[in-house]
Amino acid sequence: MPTEPTFSIVTCTWNSAATLADTLASVQRQTCRDVEHIFVDGGSTDGTLDMIAAYPGNKRVLHDVGGGISRAMNQGIEAARGRYIAHLHSDDYYASDDVLATVADRFEQDRVDWVFGKVQVLKDGRLVPPYPTVPYSYRAFASGRAFVAHPAVFLRRAVFERVGMFDEQLKYAMDIDLWLRLGRVARPAAIDRPLTIFRDHAGSVSSANKIKARMEEFQVRRRYLRQAPLAFGVYCLRYLKRMRALRAEAANC
């Protein structure tokens, strides 16, 4: 029987050759080497699969996985053998070489089921300073004041048995849905530094479909109204303000 690695890193790819090199290099540079890297490919026809084939280390590739990003991420989770699981998409990369070692230490010190840190945005070739964040609480997250960035989230593999996996009917807010389920039963440990670099570009789902993403997020948060009704009311006010701004922005384009 293969031994259980400390981390399973799941990377979903589809014609990702333009950005994948940074993703791969950032994992290879980690001081924590006890890693399996699972690639979930949606049928790439560029050089993506050749890059993965040449990539050294402990890896597995799931080929021709269709059905959307939520299904791809779930397929990676089901294939994972690591104690901790993270999703590092093919246009993102870890911010420093000690990210995995730092996260593993927090899991052991705090005995939590999930750990998250900050994300730093790379836009037009420049790193944007990290946004100010509100300390995490379930109510702060439910109200939209606290932020949990998916590329900087790490979870115990066993937690998916408790709360389920990503909702495959969702296209944009599947991570928020999972954090709202998970936050009801397990408080996370937060690391106050950037762990992952997120590329903001025209192809980003969240950037290209902002209005649709906000509408889906509203429907997801509405599912958990009873857990934090006052927080949801605060979120509704923020939602209306943000939607007005997005629609005005779209009208001026």
Automatic annotation (TrEMBL):
PANTHER family assigned to the protein according to its UniProt record, in alphabetical order: GLYCOSYLTRANSFERASE (PTHR22916), UDP-GLCNAC:BETAGAL BETA-1,3-N-ACETYLGLUCOSAMINYLTRANSFERASE-LIKE PROTEIN 1 (PTHR22916:SF3)
Coiled-coil spans in chain: none
Source species: Massilia terrae
Domain of life: Bacteria
SUPFAM superfamilies for this protein: Nucleotide-diphospho-sugar transferases (SSF53448)
Domain Glycosyltransferase 2-like residues, every copy: 8-132
Protein name: Glycosyltransferase
Gene3D superfamilies per UniProt: Spore Coat Polysaccharide Biosynthesis Protein SpsA, Chain A
